[in-house]
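Ticket opened by: R.M.
Priority: normal
Category: complex prediction / small molecule

The reporter submitted a protein together with glutathione and asked that the result be attached to this ticket for the collaborator who will pick it up next week. Submitted input follows.
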Amino acid sequence: MSDVHRIFGAEVSPYSIKVRSYFRFKGIPHEWIIRSSATQEEFEKYAKLPLIPVVVTPTGEGLQDSTPIIETLEAQFPDPTIHPPDPVAAFVSALLEEFGDEWGNKWMFHYRWARDADCRSAGGRIARTMMPGLEDAQYEGMSAGIVERMKSRVGFVGSSEQTAPQIEQSFKDGLAQLERHLADRAYLFGATPAFGDFGMWGQLYNAWTDPTAGAIIEADAPNVKGWLERMLDPKAEGDFESWSTLEPTLAPFLEQQVAALFLPWSVANADAIAGGSEEFSVELASGTWTQKPQKYHARSLGKLRERYAAVADRSVLDSVLEKTGCLRWIAVI
Ligand SMILES: N[C@@H](CCC(=O)N[C@@H](CS)C(=O)NCC(=O)O)C(=O)O
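Result attached by the on-call engineer:
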């Protein structure tokens, strides 16, 4: 029997390239199959939801959702591990994985569909991926249709006139913080990639391929750019660090991005789902944020809290989370 996993995905999909980068790092034999009109029928055999990536295991099982995909594979292929041995670094890595998927996605998605130049670029690439082999003129109409559809969807991740300046400021501040953190290390948690790298990377790499966000990265963040390139095919170049050496440059990101913006948003979103609200408003450090709740993210906050509850000795972790302002959002007694 073949030992090859198949990944149905696309370059423009942050969650797809996140999973592919993980497969590459682990050295798990895999085939990358671009989801397009040509592969749609096969894709539908395995996809329960019309979302990419879908990983088809050698035994023919279809897996979806990048976080559980990575967790399932990590249990089967433990080496080289993506989890730092220091329990504080390991939890912060899981927190950044979640941040990347949920808040990093707002950065990427907002910038991709907010301005004409970005819409044209992404719409054109998506049309060419989905329907390969057409004439140039045919792509124009398709691309316009994709742009129209995607622009109508930005509100689902919370991008609006009210939140646009907050998302863009968070992207620029977060980038500056990561730039300092990556000044003297290959990956976010040391010399080998961690769970958190994969979640953050899929989104930021895609942002880099778009004109506006890409120009900001090119101009202001050479260290982040090096990491974006490295993460395409990440390699263990040494060991993980422990929290003590990561803290000076990673704590500011936890304070100003994770605790000040993402976690209060995530908790307000989960509360709105639990209360059956159509819309919620929350006061973030960056201002008032109003949107319709996102179902998926309430589930992933629950998973993060379970992960926190499963940490055997939380004394040091709690002091780090307390100091950075994260604890009150995560520790729900
Ligand atoms: N939580 C999912 C999200 C997957 C997702 O949102 N995929 C998007 C692209 S990045 C998608 O497939 N959209 C519909 C489409 O491309 O047809 C994961 O982590 O895999």
